[in-house]
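Lab channel / #folding
Pinned by the channel admin:
"Please post every new chain as: sequence first, then the structure tokens as a reply. Keep commentary short and put observations after the output so the thread stays searchable."

First post following the new format, from NK:
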Amino acid sequence: MPKGPWYVSARAVREYAALARLGDPDDERVWATAEDELIDLCEETVGSGRKVLRLRSGLLQYRGPRPLRLTLIVSEDARPEGTLPQLISVLPQSTARSR
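Reply from TO:
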């Protein structure tokens, strides 16, 4: 059963671990920490009521909360796992606008 408002891709967990400087995501403890923190960040982002930007690609761009202020890229495409959207990428704040 999924946790949080979105499915979270492995790519997003890896990107978050790198941006949050948690260590090597191939380490199970680092992966678990990164995944848990990222799910919490997703819940906080969705609950914040901030404006969501639809990119030209059709993906959604959310601005994450402080202190990291990451950019969260979400796909609404149907997934075999179920009906939730999927967090596909976590980027530094300044890089996502043109997608």
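NK: Residues 62 and 72 are 5 Å apart (CA to CA).
TO: also worth noting, The two ends are 30 Å apart (CA to CA).
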